[in-house]
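Posted in: Structural Biology > Protein-Ligand Complexes

Title: Requesting predicted complex, iron/sulfur cluster in pocket

I'd be grateful if someone could produce the 3D structure tokens for the following input. Sequence and ligand are given below.
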Amino acid sequence: MPGQEVVSWLRTRFFPHIWCPGCGHGIIMHSLLRALVTLDKKQSETVIASGIGCSSRMAGYIDACTVHTTHGRSLGFATGIKLAKPELTVIDVMGDGDCSAIGGNHFIHACRRNIDITAIVMNNNIYGMTGGQASPTTPVGSMATTTPYGAIDPSFDICKLAEGAGASYVARTSIANPKQAEQYIMKGIQKKGFSVIEVLTHCHTTFGRRNNRKTPIDNVNFFKANTVPLSKAKDMCEEDLVGKIVIGEFVDKDVPEYTAQYLSLIERVRG
Amino acid sequence: MSRREIISGNWAFAEAMRQINPDVVAAYPITPSTDIPMKFSEFVADGKVDTNFVTVESEHSAITACVTAAAAGARVMTASSANGVGLMHEIFPIAGFFRSPIVFGLVNRSLGAPINIHCDHSDSMGERDAGWIHLYCEDAQEAYDTAVMAVRLAEHDNILTPVFVCQDGFITSHGFEPVEMLDDETVKRFVGERNARYPLLDVKNPVTYGSFASTEYYFEIKRQQVEAMENALKLYDGVAREYEAVSGRYYPMLDAYRTEDAEFVVVVMSSAAGVVKDVVDELRDKGVKAGCLRIRMFRPFPFDGVAKALSHAKAIAVLDRSLSLGGTAPVVSEVRSALYRASALIPVQSYVFGLGGRDFFPQNARDIFTDLEKGQIVGEERYIGLLE
Ligand SMILES: Cc1ncc(C[n+]2csc(CCOP(=O)(O)OP(=O)(O)O)c2C)c(N)n1
Ligand code: SF4
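-- Reply #1 --
Done. Output follows.
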């Protein structure tokens, strides 16, 4: 059961939520709320932006300043909010489709600008909400409604994408590790810059059923068995890493943040 | 041999796609049209069609791929709804101008915000000036038949214009009803092979698409599109009659139901027409001269036909399933314009209904006819079923 402080961040009047029983998105929401409570954030100074998807419904359930926007474009909305009021804590919750398919452009440019927004990418390897079409993170060989004989498109590594595009904090964990998710989210929020926390999660309903991971537990077990901490992966050979997903913190650097740069530019130009 | 199955509007459209066997389908999922590309992807995977099925990363890419594939000479189909249609907005006029004869299954859903997945016509109405033909279907049977007919209309040398085949989200797209389908061979013969006149990929006769058109040419090129629309209006019935010959089903651009001598007529599009027609029958039994005019072809708009069908009316109600905020709702503004062109100054009451999937009941239709009978016609639009 969530603690009382966590419950105070919930719009319980919107419950029952739309998520299928056992959906991984709830675990991520709980991790995020614990991080917010631990950091002593105020609901009136915290913004949760989201796009469209099962994952994006999270913005509706969190009792903060929330904006539920259009598919893939929440980072654009969040950027506007952050620039207008840089003192706000801005968190953008998104699905893998939101982040890397329809919204891929916004994502790489937010990373490049290094604007102080925390992006939580709930990667369930599928378009959950629309019934299980392959997304850019669907692993090669996996079944989806649009790939009934297995996906052949190479998939994106969201963390590498974020790192390459310039984000200042990039980490990955899974829903089998909710405590770690909470810690990474906390670090991401504290980081002055664009942070990406990819949380591997599951859509047992549309992905699991087609890929031998039918129940939520199958998926938790899958993540436990197939994720390798970065510290350990460093000592493993390529062969041993086949089929494994490396979790951990990939980037943690201090580079100039966009709103600060922007404000100092205004000051400089005005003299 | 034709066959009859209980299927949904989406499946009916997908089944027509299978039989049409387009060369290219590029699509991206969105409720409530997702079923169309999903069902079609099964046909692709099972080798039932020869289509290059491209799953892209957004609607913008989907329609873009469709436009160039069609310009290259391919037969192209796709589907979308709501914000997916909105995201394609930039490309629709390009499809129209490139004369890319795409047949598009548009499953009507309200355009967010607020986010709502249910039916209204705000998505397609936003594209009414994009240079596409708009056909609105009442039920799943019609969605199937119209998909097949639309290929011929779109690809006709003197039309060469993309077509939206609209059906109501959920009401039609997800409702299961008996649909009679032609056999594969009949559809194949009816649609024939596409024979593009200026294909982009004819390397022996190179052409260019999308070049810069300076002030000296731009206007004239647009004029050609106007002409294509005029041709569509003239040629539509020929295609519909040919389709009747193979299917036994005839779909005129206007579905005039008991309007010949009607004094009170409700003008409406798509699935809501069923309710109105039932109420027309009810009122006719009571001696009221009621009628229903369902507009099937909204672009090009059949002005003369509309004026003619309404010529006996004493009062007319026009039902729009979308708003034009700060202006006049799309269907009523065209109907008024049609009447004015015909110098028929018949009182017209505008009603907006069904936004965001708000139900439309027989009682609503009865109330509308009562307004007409009592002459309660005001300048402002009225809202049906609105809680105020
Ligand atoms: C412009 C637009 N295109 C398509 C859709 C339909 N749509 C809604 S959610 C979704 C995919 C969601 O996948 P993801 O972002 O991975 O989130 P999940 O549902 O898996 O949590 C799609 C394609 C939409 N809402 N808007
Ligand atoms: S469809 Fe998948 S992603 Fe959506 S709520 Fe259900 S389990 Fe979660």
